[in-house]
Automatic annotation (TrEMBL):
Keywords: 2Fe-2S, Iron, Iron-sulfur, Metal-binding. Residues 1-105 form the Rieske domain. It comes from Aquitalea magnusonii. It comes from the Bacteria. One of its GO terms (molecular function) is 2 iron, 2 sulfur cluster binding. It holds the Pfam family Rieske. This is Ferredoxin 2Fe-3S. The keyword Iron applies.
């Protein structure tokens, strides 16, 4: 499943995608330097969406993914919860594929 071109992701930022037609983001892509990660958009503590507004996945320092509902913080590259009620849990990764033109896809074309 095609998501976007890599140039459409903010550097050191994140963007959500509604891959299931749910009316809200179900996954988000995160770009930190030359690293890309795809994560499911829900907190492992209660399953709530992470951002407090569209595409607001990172804290004000831009260093951690944060859950707006619980204040939990996650390492953006490993998905490990480093602070909050789900300490030690992880975000669920979404496998990505980059095509030769820089297009980002959910690997395997699966619906997430």
């Amino acid at each position: 499943m095609y998501l976007c071109h890599i140039s459409e992701l903010p550097e050191d930022g994140a963007r959500g995608f509604d891959t299931a037609g749910a009316g809200q983001a179900t996954i988000f892509l995160l770009r930190k330097g030359d690293q890309l990660r795809g994560w499911r958009d829900f907190c492992p503590h209660h399953g709530t969406p992470l951002p407090w507004r569209r595409d607001a996945y990172l804290d004000t320092s831009g260093q951690h993914v944060v859950c707006a509902a619980h204040g939990a913080r996650f390492d953006p590259l490993s998905g490990l919860c480093t602070l909050g009620p789900c300490l030690g849990d992880r975000l669920i990764p979404v496998p990505l594929r980059i095509d030769d033109a820089g297009g980002l896809h959910v690997a395997g074309g699966e619906q997430i």
